[in-house]
Amino acid sequence: MKKIFLPVIGAALMASLSMCSKPQAASTAAPSAQANTNPMGNTKGRNLLYFDATANFKRFSYQDSVKYYLAKSKDAGVTDVIVDVKPISGEVLYPSQIAPVMNEWAGFTKTEKFDLLTAFIEEAHKLGMTVHASTNIFVAGHNHFSRGPVFTDPAKKNWQSLNYTAEGMKLISTLKHKYSAMVNPALPEVQKYELSILKELVSKYPKLDGVVLDRVRYDGIEADFSDASRKLFEKYIGKAVANFPADIYTYSKDAKTKDGKPERVPGPLYKQWIEWRAKVIHDFIYEARAELKKINPKLIFGDYTGSWYPTYYEVGVNWASKEYDPSQTYSWATPNYKNFGYAEALDLYTTGSYYFEVAKSEAKNIDVNTVNRTEAGQGKGKEDWYTVEGSAEMAMKITKGKVPVYAGVYVDQYIGHPEQFVKALKMCRAKSDGAMVFDIVHVINEGWWAELKRGLTE
């Protein structure tokens, strides 16, 4: 999800987003029958509200706050709450035997003794609301605070992403303009660790309705170029890479992007590399689903991604249906890329339609020189899918009805424009199965409860 800027005790807090020659057999088997039974029940008309872990840490360190804000959310038309229990720091907000537990944030230490997630589950269920736990997967540190397992656990330091930048190979912990210390999704030990946390979570809370995975992706197109990734990629294509990383891409000495950065020049294995990365994420999604359904067959298995599908390949993710073939439209996709779509594996999919412009007709107003698009894989353009309406329509189109889709808004983008916020919520509901709102902290800070209710109920 997005990063959040908040004032905390007078300080600014950054809180919290060509076919292969010899490919291995693609894992394209259909998900279990459970995916088609709609464990969400009535999927149309549901409204999801996020509760970010760090932005709300102090507020929800008190049990009466949980009860109070759930009641306000219910009154505003929220049907589902998504509680962030594993933020980008790699810590968790519940008693874990595996991951480090966050008891302090931004100088505030939690003193009230209660289980946060249990409180959310019990109070929300009294109100007839559904509770999902959100976990950030392939990230294990907050770069701006040098906090998290990749900084404090020597055994996990080498898990961090190695990025191929125009200045050379850089460990992501040294790239302080990035707030998420992402790890390498292809490493078996990383996948095993993250799966163990998910399984512990679902086992510990049998009354939890669902999980929503976040950051099940690579950091960006620059990641990961470690020797481990090279070897795994070579195994996938069945041959050695003669010139690594140049056979994937190089940086032009002359050509510049619109941002003035050296332009990437695709190499002969660029498309195969994109395909392989999508397979890495696809296979993890299917494995996570299978493992969690063993523990709780009724669990709602969900995922969040950004909505900018035409550029989302940069983070190694194909969230479309397997029935959608992007190679018919986009030059970066191989004919095999469609096999690594994973919409069929999900019971719930929520996407960030994070644009100020709501209607497709507003796309003409986009100023690409000033637009704020800093999320992973986001590009700059004026296509109509850079609007709430256009992105929601695209999400519905390419998921092919395989999973309920909830288009989402980032509340902070509408500060000073409450009517645009209401309009965006109504558009999400009109063009997808419902609305997702990120994050409650902005609704609280702006006092937009009436606006939220209008957007979710009118």
From TrEMBL:
SUPFAM superfamilies: (Trans)glycosidases. Keywords: Signal. It holds the Pfam family GHL10. Residues 1-25 form the signal peptide. Residues 62-302 form the Glycosyl hydrolase-like domain. It comes from the Bacteria. Coiled coil: none annotated. Residues 328-454 form the DUF4985 domain. PANTHER family: GLYCOSYL HYDROLASE DIGH. This is S-layer protein.
